[in-house]
């Protein structure tokens, strides 16, 4: 969100007050690990400057070594928002305060505040400045655009500084808190969740709010208020990397070297703003700390890494159709691990009712047993919304299980389903009610759930059972939803066999694997969009990720299907899924059958390596499928790469995203061996680019040796 008018001025509707002088720093007498810095919105040259002027209260803490939390507060208000569940560790901190400076130290990370002079906060890692908050970077901002004409600002009679409260004001102005952290020259910014725009985020405006907008838009299903800032090392000069996690469940707006081109600005509505600075020597160490701080990752069961096949969405399907697909895969010697039933396993217009459509599936329990007898796991689609036509709607309304409007009625709309209501997961009784239906399905033989949706959650005139601010509950909704489903799976299946297949996510969602990339197109550019979004997501503390092989929307061409099959079966998790078209290979051409068989068997062959790397990734808190910069942080050529990736620590994959098979890719320095291809190629000298052409049975797939 932009508040400024150029570098010096503010926009007319905003009153921007920034800390101009930190005048006092104190260590909490009851908790020696906390320091508070008081900063005035005016330089304090005399006692008269202490009148009619606001302060920011800046509180410092350290949840684990090398991580420092900063809370900026204007007024001490209770915002009633959900708090992310953080995993902390006892930490030794050092504090130093004298007349000129206050220092707060956790491990090798230091925050220095200038006292009794122009406001300045420097952030140092091993005594080297990595970022900071300079004068007029922090701000307490009033938005007067909604005030009545004739209201005027109250000004300090001596200093002229403006206060936040217009005289005669009927209601308080909307209020925002902002921070701006400086970027060293040459620093790249990554992350923010599954963002589909340019991989290096410099120059972008990013709003952290979950929306259902498809993979080709600025909206995202998985918003994470975290970014990694990095500058690759060159020669004997080491790189510089750190992370910033804005610990806010309400929507946060980031201006990434956009509003002010040498800073990352972030702001949110309210009277306070909290964030953590996370230090480390490498991108892996920074992201790993963030991952552990927000709960760590969970290793999904080994069977989830195999091939998943879906009924697809709006296609016709019954048990006969399903069995024909499974028989077809077996007849063509294509290994299959999971079969997924999408929305129409339930009757149309009644989602969600948790009942099999008897017209298409007259014997669901028997069918599930027959699928299990073939060695398959079964996944079924669910969502957290209840249609007014569903038999569950009346129950949920009578018992108060849905999000309400301010007038006490159920919050409804016709988007997605007629009279759609939203299960209120802040209500423990509603959680149990929802979980009981899932238990019934698990008892019937279902193995896991695809937890779709969770993004379009009402904020305007929305009332939650727990009374929380709906702006905070919007992004957090997906966490409550996925946790409720995951907890049932743990209780019924055991922790080692629990998995959800989720579209939406927020901070901490890596505890509930797996996630997939949402609604993409059956086009080559959408392959690139999907990968770019996935690599951003995997730069944001998550470990596992998947995508709809072949694209979700539209009919896929045979070439798209075959190229995406290569990409999908060399991803963390692999699922065929579509909207209007079945995604079985023999419906495309015979070569598609051969390609699917070859790459499904290749993934089987690689499974010992993949699963070992998955375990290591969980232990380190990093991603299995990872951007090139994560594995090669000191190679500047890897910094912007977003059309290739590392699968674990040894294998590089460059999906082919062209009709004719042309692809360009970069190999970092070292010796690389081609993994599959009728040509056995060993590259003795990496550190250069290649432009090649590949048929449908191969792609740039190299193992470093």
From TrEMBL:
SUPFAM superfamilies of this UniProt entry?
(Trans)glycosidases, Galactose mutarotase-like, Glycosyl hydrolase domain
UniProt catalytic activity: Hydrolysis of terminal, non-reducing alpha-D-xylose residues with release of alpha-D-xylose
* Gene3D superfamilies, per the entry: Glycosidases (3.20.20.80), glycosyl hydrolase (family 31) (2.60.40.1760), Golgi alpha-mannosidase II (2.60.40.1180)
**Cross-referenced Pfam families, in alphabetical order?**
Gal_mutarotas_2, Glyco_hydro_31_2nd, Glyco_hydro_31_3rd
Glycosyl hydrolase family 31 C-terminal domain residues: 621-704
Stretches assigned to the Glycoside hydrolase family 31 TIM barrel domain: 298-612
Q: Name one GO biological process term.
A: carbohydrate metabolic process
EC number per UniProt: 3.2.1.177
Of which family is this protein a member?
Belongs to the glycosyl hydrolase 31 family.
For this entry, the protein name equals alpha-D-xyloside xylohydrolase
- The gene that this protein is the product of is yicI
């Amino acid at each position: 969100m932009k508040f400024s008018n150029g570098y010096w001025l503010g926009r007319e509707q905003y009153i921007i007050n920034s800390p101009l002088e930190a005048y006092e720093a104190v260590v909490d007498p009851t908790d020696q690990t906390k320091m508070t810095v008081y900063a005035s919105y005016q330089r304090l040259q005399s006692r008269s400057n202490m009148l009619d002027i606001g302060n920011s209260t800046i509180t410092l803490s350290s949840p684990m070594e090398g991580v420092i939390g900063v809370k900026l507060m204007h007024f001490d208000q209770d915002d009633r928002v959900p708090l992310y569940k953080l995993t902390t560790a006892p930490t030794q901190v050092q504090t130093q305060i004298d007349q000129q400076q206050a220092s707060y130290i956790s491990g090798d990370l230091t925050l220095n505040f200038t006292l009794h002079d122009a406001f300045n906060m420097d952030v140092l890692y091993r005594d080297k400045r990595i970022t900071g908050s300079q004068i007029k970077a922090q701000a307490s901002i009033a938005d007067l655009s909604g005030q009545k004409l004739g209201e005027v600002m109250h000004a300090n009679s001596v200093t002229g500084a403006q206060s936040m409260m217009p005289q005669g004001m009927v209601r308080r102005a909307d209020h925002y808190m902002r921070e701006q952290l400086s970027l060293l020259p040459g620093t790249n910014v990554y992350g923010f969740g599954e963002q589909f725009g340019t991989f290096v985020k410099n120059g972008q405006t990013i709003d952290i709010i979950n929306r259902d907008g498809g993979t080709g838009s600025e909206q995202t299903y998985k918003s994470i208020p975290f970014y990694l800032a990095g500058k690759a090392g060159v020669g004997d000069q080491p790189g510089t990397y750190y992370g910033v996690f804005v610990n806010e469940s309400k929507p946060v707006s980031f201006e990434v070297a956009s509003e002010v081109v040498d800073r990352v600005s972030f702001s949110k509505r309210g009277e306070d703003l909290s964030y953590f600075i996370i230090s480390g020597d490498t991108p892996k160490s920074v992201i790993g700390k963030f991952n552990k701080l927000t709960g760590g990752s969970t290793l999904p069961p080994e069977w989830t890494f195999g091939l998943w096949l879906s009924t697809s969405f709006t296609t016709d399907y019954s048990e006969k159709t399903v069995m024909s697909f499974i028989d077809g895969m077996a007849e063509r010697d294509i290994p299959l691990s999971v079969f997924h039933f999408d929305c129409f396993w339930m009757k149309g217009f009644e989602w969600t009712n948790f009942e099999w459509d008897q017209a298409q599936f007259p014997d669901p329990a028997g069918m599930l047993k027959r699928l299990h007898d073939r060695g398959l796991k079964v996944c079924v689609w669910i969502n957290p919304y209840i249609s007014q036509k569903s038999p569950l709607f009346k129950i949920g309304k009578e018992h108060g299980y849905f999000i309400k409007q301010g007038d006490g009625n159920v919050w409804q709309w016709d988007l997605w389903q007629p009279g759609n209501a939203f299960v209120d997961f802040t209500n423990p009784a509603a959680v149990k009610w929802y979980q009981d239906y899932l238990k019934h399905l698990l008892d019937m033989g279902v193995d896991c759930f695809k937890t779709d949706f969770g993004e379009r959650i009402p904020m305007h005139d929305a009332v939650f059972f727990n009374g929380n601010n709906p702006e905070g509950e919007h992004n957090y909704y997906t966490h409550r939803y996925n946790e409720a489903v995951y907890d049932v799976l743990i209780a019924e299946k055991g922790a080692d066999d629990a998995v959800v297949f989720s579209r939406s996510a927020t901070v901490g969602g890596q505890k509930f694997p797996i996630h997939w990339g949402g609604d993409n197109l059956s086009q080559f550019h959408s392959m690139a969009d999907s990968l770019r979004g996935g690599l951003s997501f995997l730069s944001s503390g998550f470990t596992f990720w998947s995508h709809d092989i072949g694209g979700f929307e539209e009919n896929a061409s045979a070439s798209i299907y075959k190229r995406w099959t290569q990409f999908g079966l060399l991803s963390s998790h692999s699922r065929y899924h579509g909207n209007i078209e079945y995604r079985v290979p023999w419906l495309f051409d015979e070569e598609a059958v051969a390609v699917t068989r070859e790459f499904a068997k290749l993934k089987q062959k690689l499974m010992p390596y993949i699963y070992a790397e998955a375990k290591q990734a969980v232990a380190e808190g990093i991603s299995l499928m990872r951007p090139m910069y994560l594995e090669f942080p000191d190679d500047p050529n890897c910094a912007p790469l977003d059309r290739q990736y590392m699968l674990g620590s040894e294998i590089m994959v460059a999906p082919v995203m062209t009709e004719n098979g042309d692809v360009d890719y970069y190999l970092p320095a070292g010796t690389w061996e081609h993994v599959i291809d009728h040509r056995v190629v060993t590259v003795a000298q990496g550190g250069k680019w290649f432009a090649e052409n590949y048929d449908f049975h191969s792609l740039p797939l190299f193992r470093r040796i």
